Amino acid sequence: MASGSAGKPSGEAASPAPASAVGAACSQPRKRLVSVCDHCKGKMQLVADLLLLSSEARPVLFEGPAASCAGAAESFEQCRDTIIARTKGLSILTHDVQSQLNMGRFGEAGDSLVELGDLVVSLTECSAHAAYLAAVATPGAQPAQPGLVDRYRVTRCRHEVEQGCAVLRATPLADMTPQLLLEVSQGLSRNLKFLTDACALASDKSRDRFSREQFKLGVKCMSTSASALLACVREVKAAPSELARSRCALFSGPLVQAVSALVGFATEPQFLGRAAAVSAEGKAVQTAILGGAMSVVSACVLLTQCLRDLAQHPDGSAKMSDHRERLRNSACAVSEGCTLLSQALRERSSPRTLPPQSCWIRRILGVERV
């Protein structure tokens, strides 16, 4: 056994790490994976509810990895090819997550799941846009008319702000690392900036005096609440204490309320423009593609839930084998969903009979209408 260690007086045996510290270190990657599962599941469900369960046909405007569908890939064919290529990337990530979990690499599995969640969101956005393009290409269709506000994007921002504030409320002081606080602050700032810019533009373009002023007042209320919360975040980062942490929880509430009120006002029907008018043929094409995308999303939600269950149970648990079997089955469902989506895009029709009622899909996802 080693007789000494760096920084120890010679002859003094190195002290083993306390059992509690070892257990805490081992549990941290598991806890993070559980948190990542919850975040990814919520994000995928929200996007599915907004884009796949909607009865309206509208183009999808987005940023990031999905931007090529709305920008460089305006044609249905280009959008279709982008989606099919991304289903292959999704299959690779699904395999990676399984392998990492089987090897006990919970940290790496969490990183891969973040990528997977982002890819599913991108895939969903592109699929919804492709469904719109296919629907308005049918005879007699009238394209959508844009409004002052994009309901999808501002609702996504509201959700991200709510998630960030929930992290601040739920995270113990010991887990409030500088990196976590930085990520939360950056996420809040990014989404608040988008809401500010979107509502300022809507205010400028609005013809109604009350609406112009209400957008400005809503942004002012949101900005004031955000400044108060971010000051608390900076304080807990500079001088961590339970009092500083409790202030973060205290001031997160007003921000959530201010954002909810602003987005609620911004998404009133008069600000949203008009959805496309499509024939029964166009509706059938749209439904087929959205149904294929829902097959992918629902399978990925199940996969995420299986990962969460595995992360919460010790390796020797009697239920572990059942959880691993469920994980394998859900991974197969992801692969099948990708195949169904690809077929629907190629054929512009459903490759198999899909349930006629969206409530069946809601039961799988556990979502409510936003």
Oligomer state of the chains in this structure: single chain
Q: Which class do the helix and strand fractions yield? A: mainly alpha
Give the SSE order as H and E letters.
Answer: HHHHHHHHHHH
Strands, total number: 0
Sheet with most strands: none
Write down the overall mean pLDDT.
Answer: 84
Helix content: over 70%
Roughly what fraction of the amino acids lie in strands? under 5%
What labels describe this entry?
flat; 370 residues; disordered C terminus; single chain; disordered N terminus; 72% helix; 11 helices; mainly alpha
Q: What does it look like?
A:
The longest helix is centred in the N-terminal third of the chain and has 34 residues, at 19-52. 40% of the residues are buried. The chain has helices spanning 19-52, 67-70, 76-102, 106-136, 151-170, 178-205, 209-238, 242-266, 280-312, 320-347, 358-365. Mean pLDDT is 84; it is low at 1-26 and 353-370. Helix 3 (76-102) runs antiparallel to helix 4 (106-136), helix 5 runs antiparallel to helix 8 and helix 9 (280-312) runs antiparallel to helix 10. It has 370 residues and is mostly helical. It starts with 18 loop residues before the first helix and ends in a 5-residue tail after the last helix. This is Talin rod domain-containing protein 1. Residues 150-269 form the Talin IBS2B domain. It holds the Pfam family Talin_IBS2B.
